[in-house]
Write a structure and sequence with these properties.
Length: 341
C-alpha cells in the first residue's frame, strides 16, 4: 500500500505537535497539510523545536477543498470545532478526533457537559469511542474515530475487565488522578499564572469534571451494568504523565491475586498494556514518551480491598499515540508502527 495522505487540524497545541512528531516517524504516512488559525504561515518548529529539521509543510488555514486529497484528518481542536469539519467529510475520508466532540453517544449529554450545541448530531452514529484495547474489532466499521480522554484511558483500562468478570464492587469505586499540566493545553500558563503552577498541586473539577460523562458511559456500555464511582483529578507540577490511583472493594470470595490474574489474561496479547508484579509502585517516569499503560495491583491495609495504580503519558497513550494506534488498526498497519512500546 502506498503512503496515506494526512491532514492535521490543530497541529500547534501540545497534543497536535506530539502527533506531528509521531507521524513524521511513521513509514506509511505523508503529512500533506498542517492547519491552524492564529499560527498561519509559521513553521511547526516554532512550537516544537524537535521538529526543526523535519521536511514539513507550513501551517495554513483549513479549507474543505483539502479533503479531496486526504485519507485521514486528525483533529486536535477546541471542543465543538471538529463537528464543523465533520460536516465536510467525503466518503474517502476517515476522521480521527482527539477532542470530546464525538465521545458521547447522546447529543444532549454533550450539551450538558460542554455547554455547546452539537453541530453534527447526524454523524454520531458513524462514530466510535475508540479505546483500542477494548474496541479493536469494531474500529474499522466507523468513519469517525473518537479517541478517549487522557484520564478515562488510565481509568477504563484497569476497570473494565474487572467489572466484566464481577470481581469488584462496582458501586463504590474511588478514583484519584494526577496529571501533568500539559493536559490542560498551552493556555494553562495563562489560566494558572496566579497559582504557582510549577511548584504546587491543585485539585479541580470535583464531582463535575467533564471526563465523568465518558467514564460513566463506557463503564456502563462495556460492562452492561450501572456503575458508581467518584473521580477527583489533580494538576501536578510536571509537564506530562498521569498517575491514577483506584480504590476498590473486592466481591465476596475474591482474592488480590485473582485481580492480577484477570488483568494479565485480558491483556496478554495487548503489547501496549503491561501488568506488573503485584504491589509494584509506579511512577510516571515508567511511561513517559511511550504509548504504554502500566497497571499494578496493590494490597490495601484493609481486608477485601485493593488499590490499583495506572500510569500513562497523557500526550501519547492518552492522546496522540492512541490516535496513531487507532489509525494503524483501521488500515491494517502494524499496531505499533510509529509508536514506542
Amino acid at each position: 500500500m502506498s503512503k496515506i495522505n494526512v491532514l492535521i487540524a490543530g497541529s500547534t497545541g501540545y497534543i497536535g505537535s506530539q502527533l506531528v512528531k509521531l507521524l513524521t516517524n511513521h513509514k506509511k504516512v505523508n503529512i500533506k497539510y498542517l492547519c491552524g488559525s492564529s499560527s498561519v504561515g509559521k513553521d511547526i518548529s516554532h512550537f516544537d523545536k524537535n521538529l526543526k529539521n523535519k521536511k514539513l509543510p507550513k501551517i495554513i488555514k483549513f479549507k474543505k477543498e483539502f479533503l479531496k486529497n486526504i485519507d485521514i484528518i486528525f483533529t486536535a481542536l477546541p471542543n465543538g470545532e471538529t463537528q464543523k469539519i465533520s460536516n465536510y467529510l467525503l466518503k474517502k475520508n476517515i476522521l480521527i478526533d482527539l477532542s470530546a466532540d464525538f465521545r458521547l453517544r447522546n447529543s444532549k449529554d454533550f450539551k450538558n457537559c460542554y455547554k455547546i450545541n452539537h453541530k453534527a448530531k447526524h454523524l454520531i452514529k458513524r462514530s466510535i469511542y475508540a479505546l483500542p484495547e477494548i474496541k479493536k474489532n469494531s474500529i474499522k466499521k466507523y468513519s469517525i474515530i473518537s479517541c478517549p480522554g487522557c484520564y478515562p484511558t488510565s481509568i477504563l483500562l484497569p476497570l473494565i475487565p474487572l467489572i466484566k468478570k464481577n470481581l469488584i464492587n462496582n458501586k463504590n469505586i474511588i478514583i484519584d488522578s494526577k496529571s501533568g499540566y500539559s493536559g490542560a493545553g498551552r493556555g494553562v500558563h495563562k489560566k494558572y499564572r496566579n497559582k504557582n503552577l510549577y511548584e504546587s498541586l491543585s485539585a479541580y473539577g470535583l464531582a463535575n469534571h467533564r471526563h465523568n460523562s465518558e467514564i460513566q458511559q463506557e463503564l456502563d456500555l462495556c460492562t452492561g451494568k450501572k456503575n458508581k464511582f467518584q473521580f477527583t483529578p489533580h494538576l501536578s507540577p510536571m509537564f506530562r504523565g498521569i498517575l491514577t490511583t483506584i480504590y476498590l472493594d473486592l466481591n465476596k470470595g475474591i482474592k488480590e491475586n485473582e485481580i492480577n490474574k484477570q488483568l494479565k489474561n485480558f491483556y496478554k496479547k495487548k503489547h501496549f498494556i503491561k501488568i506488573t508484579k503485584q504491589n509494584t509502585f509506579l511512577s510516571t517516569n515508567d511511561v513517559i514518551n511511550t504509548n504504554k499503560c502500566i497497571i499494578s495491583v496493590c494490597k490495601s491495609k484493609f481486608k477485601n480491598k485493593i488499590i490499583i495504580l495506572s500510569a500513562i503519558d497523557n500526550l501519547i497513550k492518552g492522546g496522540a499515540g492512541q490516535a496513531v494506534q487507532n489509525m494503524n488498526i483501521y488500515f491494517n498497519f502494524k499496531e505499533s508502527e510509529g509508536l514506542i512500546e
